[in-house]
Design a protein that fits this description.
single chain, alpha+beta, Aminopeptidase, eight-stranded mixed beta sheet, 4 helices, 8 strands, globular
Length: 167
Protein backbone atom coordinates (compact mmCIF):
# COMPACT_ATOMS: atom_id res chain seq x y z
CA UNK A 1 0.00 0.00 0.00
CA UNK A 2 1.19 3.51 -0.73
CA UNK A 3 0.16 6.66 1.09
CA UNK A 4 0.62 10.32 0.23
CA UNK A 5 3.41 12.01 2.14
CA UNK A 6 1.63 14.80 4.07
CA UNK A 7 4.65 17.09 3.55
CA UNK A 8 4.59 16.73 -0.26
CA UNK A 9 3.20 19.71 -2.18
CA UNK A 10 0.70 19.29 -4.98
CA UNK A 11 1.26 21.74 -7.83
CA UNK A 12 -1.78 23.49 -9.29
CA UNK A 13 -3.51 21.50 -12.00
CA UNK A 14 -5.02 24.28 -14.08
CA UNK A 15 -3.27 26.59 -16.49
CA UNK A 16 -3.22 30.37 -16.05
CA UNK A 17 -6.47 30.65 -18.00
CA UNK A 18 -8.24 28.36 -15.50
CA UNK A 19 -8.77 25.78 -18.26
CA UNK A 20 -7.08 22.44 -17.96
CA UNK A 21 -5.19 21.26 -20.98
CA UNK A 22 -2.07 19.21 -21.40
CA UNK A 23 0.19 19.19 -24.39
CA UNK A 24 3.86 19.02 -25.23
CA UNK A 25 4.57 20.50 -28.63
CA UNK A 26 8.17 19.26 -28.54
CA UNK A 27 6.83 15.71 -28.93
CA UNK A 28 3.91 16.71 -31.13
CA UNK A 29 1.52 15.38 -28.51
CA UNK A 30 -2.08 16.29 -29.22
CA UNK A 31 -3.79 18.55 -26.72
CA UNK A 32 -5.52 16.59 -24.00
CA UNK A 33 -8.55 18.10 -22.28
CA UNK A 34 -9.23 17.21 -18.66
CA UNK A 35 -12.77 17.11 -17.31
CA UNK A 36 -13.80 16.64 -13.69
CA UNK A 37 -17.49 16.37 -14.50
CA UNK A 38 -19.31 13.05 -14.69
CA UNK A 39 -22.14 14.71 -16.60
CA UNK A 40 -22.09 13.98 -20.30
CA UNK A 41 -19.65 11.06 -20.04
CA UNK A 42 -20.22 8.35 -22.63
CA UNK A 43 -19.93 5.41 -20.25
CA UNK A 44 -20.01 2.84 -23.06
CA UNK A 45 -17.12 4.59 -24.80
CA UNK A 46 -15.15 4.72 -21.54
CA UNK A 47 -15.77 1.01 -20.93
CA UNK A 48 -14.72 0.22 -24.52
CA UNK A 49 -11.51 2.28 -24.16
CA UNK A 50 -10.63 0.53 -20.91
CA UNK A 51 -11.35 -2.91 -22.41
CA UNK A 52 -9.34 -2.14 -25.55
CA UNK A 53 -6.37 -1.23 -23.35
CA UNK A 54 -6.73 -4.34 -21.14
CA UNK A 55 -7.69 -2.24 -18.10
CA UNK A 56 -11.26 -3.48 -17.74
CA UNK A 57 -12.17 -5.10 -14.43
CA UNK A 58 -15.57 -6.40 -15.48
CA UNK A 59 -17.83 -3.49 -14.57
CA UNK A 60 -20.64 -2.69 -16.96
CA UNK A 61 -21.03 0.85 -18.34
CA UNK A 62 -23.81 1.41 -15.77
CA UNK A 63 -21.52 0.21 -12.97
CA UNK A 64 -18.75 2.54 -14.17
CA UNK A 65 -21.22 5.42 -14.03
CA UNK A 66 -22.37 4.46 -10.51
CA UNK A 67 -18.74 4.13 -9.36
CA UNK A 68 -17.86 7.56 -10.68
CA UNK A 69 -21.00 9.34 -9.46
CA UNK A 70 -20.48 7.91 -5.97
CA UNK A 71 -16.86 9.06 -5.82
CA UNK A 72 -15.58 12.16 -4.05
CA UNK A 73 -13.98 13.18 -7.35
CA UNK A 74 -13.31 11.90 -10.84
CA UNK A 75 -11.27 13.15 -13.77
CA UNK A 76 -11.14 12.15 -17.41
CA UNK A 77 -8.42 12.80 -19.99
CA UNK A 78 -9.92 13.26 -23.43
CA UNK A 79 -8.26 13.47 -26.83
CA UNK A 80 -10.88 14.72 -29.26
CA UNK A 81 -13.75 12.28 -28.76
CA UNK A 82 -11.64 9.51 -27.17
CA UNK A 83 -11.14 8.77 -23.49
CA UNK A 84 -7.41 8.31 -22.89
CA UNK A 85 -7.26 8.57 -19.10
CA UNK A 86 -9.32 8.33 -15.95
CA UNK A 87 -8.92 8.51 -12.17
CA UNK A 88 -11.18 8.63 -9.15
CA UNK A 89 -10.80 9.49 -5.48
CA UNK A 90 -12.90 8.26 -2.57
CA UNK A 91 -12.93 10.27 0.65
CA UNK A 92 -14.65 10.69 3.99
CA UNK A 93 -14.33 14.44 3.42
CA UNK A 94 -12.27 14.91 6.57
CA UNK A 95 -9.05 12.94 6.88
CA UNK A 96 -8.88 9.80 4.74
CA UNK A 97 -8.98 9.31 0.98
CA UNK A 98 -8.22 6.54 -1.48
CA UNK A 99 -7.11 6.95 -5.11
CA UNK A 100 -8.58 4.33 -7.47
CA UNK A 101 -8.93 3.51 -11.17
CA UNK A 102 -5.93 5.51 -12.36
CA UNK A 103 -5.55 4.68 -16.05
CA UNK A 104 -3.78 6.23 -19.00
CA UNK A 105 -4.16 4.57 -22.40
CA UNK A 106 -0.96 2.76 -23.31
CA UNK A 107 -0.33 4.91 -26.40
CA UNK A 108 -0.51 8.07 -24.23
CA UNK A 109 1.76 7.04 -21.37
CA UNK A 110 4.95 8.84 -20.32
CA UNK A 111 3.54 12.22 -21.34
CA UNK A 112 2.43 13.51 -17.93
CA UNK A 113 -1.24 12.61 -18.31
CA UNK A 114 -1.30 10.09 -15.44
CA UNK A 115 0.54 12.54 -13.19
CA UNK A 116 -2.00 15.24 -14.02
CA UNK A 117 -4.90 12.87 -13.28
CA UNK A 118 -3.46 12.07 -9.84
CA UNK A 119 -2.60 15.71 -9.08
CA UNK A 120 -6.19 16.73 -9.83
CA UNK A 121 -7.57 14.10 -7.48
CA UNK A 122 -5.11 15.07 -4.71
CA UNK A 123 -6.11 18.73 -5.07
CA UNK A 124 -9.64 17.75 -3.99
CA UNK A 125 -8.51 16.41 -0.59
CA UNK A 126 -6.13 18.89 1.06
CA UNK A 127 -5.00 17.82 4.53
CA UNK A 128 -6.16 14.24 4.07
CA UNK A 129 -4.14 11.05 4.30
CA UNK A 130 -4.37 9.49 0.83
CA UNK A 131 -3.90 5.78 0.19
CA UNK A 132 -3.72 3.67 -2.93
CA UNK A 133 -2.79 0.14 -3.99
CA UNK A 134 -0.64 -0.64 -6.99
CA UNK A 135 0.75 -3.87 -8.36
CA UNK A 136 3.34 -2.47 -10.72
CA UNK A 137 3.49 1.35 -10.62
CA UNK A 138 5.06 2.07 -7.21
CA UNK A 139 7.88 4.17 -8.70
CA UNK A 140 5.37 6.35 -10.59
CA UNK A 141 3.51 7.09 -7.34
CA UNK A 142 6.73 7.64 -5.38
CA UNK A 143 7.62 10.41 -7.84
CA UNK A 144 4.26 12.02 -6.98
CA UNK A 145 5.07 12.02 -3.25
CA UNK A 146 3.59 8.71 -2.08
CA UNK A 147 5.51 6.39 0.24
CA UNK A 148 5.18 2.68 0.96
CA UNK A 149 2.96 1.87 3.93
CA UNK A 150 3.58 -1.69 5.16
CA UNK A 151 0.88 -4.16 6.02
CA UNK A 152 -1.87 -2.95 3.71
CA UNK A 153 -4.62 -5.53 3.50
CA UNK A 154 -7.76 -6.06 1.48
CA UNK A 155 -10.52 -8.50 0.71
CA UNK A 156 -13.51 -8.95 -1.57
CA UNK A 157 -16.74 -9.33 0.36
CA UNK A 158 -18.64 -12.21 -1.23
CA UNK A 159 -17.88 -12.54 -4.95
CA UNK A 160 -16.30 -9.84 -7.15
CA UNK A 161 -18.96 -7.31 -8.23
CA UNK A 162 -21.54 -9.56 -6.56
CA UNK A 163 -21.47 -11.78 -9.64
CA UNK A 164 -22.48 -15.42 -9.44
CA UNK A 165 -19.13 -17.24 -9.34
CA UNK A 166 -20.53 -20.23 -11.25
CA UNK A 167 -19.73 -20.40 -15.00
Amino acid sequence: MLARDPQARTPPADGPDGVSHFGDNREMVPTIAFSESVDGVDWRALKAALAADDFDNGRTPDEYETSHRNSFGAVFAIDGDRYVGNARILSDGVCNAYVVDVWTATAYRRRGIGSELVRRMLARVPGQHVYLFTDDMAEFYRRLGFSVQPDGMGMVVGSWLSRDPRP
